[in-house]
Amino acid sequence: MDSVIFSFIIAAAAGEQPPFLLSMLPLVAIFVIFYFLLIRPQQKRMKEHQAKIDSVKKNDKVVTGGGLVGKVTKVDDDYVDIDLGGGLKVKAVKSTLSDIVPPGGSKPAND
Does 2.30.30 match the CATH number of domain 57-101? Predict the structure, then answer.
């Protein structure tokens, strides 16, 4: 009985290889899963962010990548001038803006 089981295992191990397409199926499935769960949503967020940054105009309140919050005073193709308050103005690269703060979107600090 043991020799029958042993010979069956050897026969199965010496059998044919699965077709190439069948062996590639798990890799294709993994790529499809990664595309729909990781790559596609990230591309969508990048497009939305780029559209938001391209729509920056004078008097918008913005947040820079470094966390500075200020009001846009001038917009160029690649740069924005930001008034941080107290007479402090900086020039920032437009692509480093993180967010545009909606009007009335923040509460006063002492409430």
Answer: yes
